[in-house]
Structures are given as C-alpha cells and as structure tokens.
Design brief:
The complex is a heterodimer of chains A (113) and B (76). Chain A has 113 residues and is of the alpha+beta class. Chain A is 47% helix and 15% strand. The mean pLDDT of chain B is 94. In chain B, strands 1-2-3 form a three-stranded mixed beta sheet. By secondary structure, chain B is α+β, with helices and mostly antiparallel strands. The chains are: A alpha+beta (113), B alpha+beta (76).
Chain lengths: 113, 76
C-alpha cells in the first residue's frame, strides 16, 4: 500500500492507545456496527479515539488493506488489531475484552460484578 | 448489490468443506446476514484468523457486494 498512507495509519494506531476506525463519530455513529463497538467502549469507560473513515476515502480503503480486514469498524488496542464488531462484542460478553484491557494496562471501569 | 443466501453458503462450503453453516437473512434484502459457522479448520486459531478465513472464502465480496455479515465462528 501507499507508504504515506501506511505511515498515517501507523501514526494513529501508535498515538492513540485505543483507536476505533468507524463510520461516523463516537457521538454520532453512522452505522449499527460502529455504534455497537463504540457503545461497548463507552460502557467500559475506556478513553478512545474514534476515527471517522467516512471523512477520508483514502483512509476508508487503506485501513482495510492495512489490517487485512474487509469491514468497518476496526478496533486497535496499543497497536494490536483486536477485530471487528462481532469479535469485540463477543469478547466483551465473555469478559475477554476486559482481560485484554487489563493486560494492556488500559484504564476502564468494569460494570459487571 | 447484495448476495443470495445460497451463494454465500456455497462460497463458504467451497473454501471450508467441513463447515456447518447456519445463516439468516436479517432484513430480507440480500445484504444483511448473520451466520454461525462451525468447522475443524478453526481449531487453535484466534477469532481474527477464523473470521479472516470466512472473509477469504467470500473472495472480496465482503464489504463490497455484501454489506453486513455478522459472524460467529465455532471450533468443531
């Protein structure tokens, strides 16, 4: 892929500990799947950067190649690709997302007792 | 746009012959599906790798012709 674009994505993924490539913004998601992941992160009180790929057509195609993943949203935690909405939801329900956040030393609130 | 349910099934079957597939057309528009797929090939692989195998089976249609396919992959 284009070197400049790759650098741009590298930079976002490195700069933001929790980084969600999504359709729309965390405030106004434009797709149900992006909404779902955004809600999981909000529920856990995780600080994250939402990157609206609808505003950048180069990024919209580039991120799919970068992650070798054909759909949006895409979640990165400390540079590691975690998955799309199905995986994130499943991990959350099984407590594995919380485990991952703990491993990566990302602050969150566990509302499930 | 869209992809017929049977076509999705047959593409997955071709790439993952032992797959047990249960698939639902969520909106009746050939474009929003939910699938549960069980296969031995998923054993020992991460969820990301498992889903990638399914996406690969769909030969680039995912995210293009096919807008949404919620996936649940299970080891057999």
């Amino acid at each position: 892929m284009d070197e400049k674009l790759k650098k741009k994505i590298d930079n976002e993924v490195e700069k933001n500990e929790v980084c969600l490539f999504m359709k729309g913004t965390p405030e106004v998601p434009q797709c149900g799947f992006s909404l779902a992941v955004s809600n999981v992160l909000k529920h856990l009180d995780v600080r994250f950067k939402g990157i609206n790929i609808l505003e950048d057509s180069e990024l919209r195609e580039g991120i799919k190649e970068y992650s070798d993943w054909p759909t949006i949203p895409q979640l990165y935690i400390k540079g590691e690709f975690i998955g799309g909405s199905d995986i994130v939801k499943e991990m959350f329900e099984q407590g594995n997302l919380q485990k991952k956040l703990r491993e990566k030393q990302i602050a969150f609130k566990n509302n499930i007792k | 746009m869209g992809l017929k349910l049977e076509e999705i099934k047959s593409l997955i079957k071709k790439a993952i012959p032992d797959a047990e597939i249960s698939i639902q057309d969520l909106a009746g528009d050939d474009n929003h599906y939910s699938a549960t797929i069980k296969s031995k090939t998923f054993s020992g692989k991460s969820k990301v790798e498992q889903h990638k195998l399914v996406y690969k089976a769909l030969k680039g249609k995912m995210g293009n012709e096919l807008h949404a396919l919620a996936l649940n992959t299970l080891e057999r």
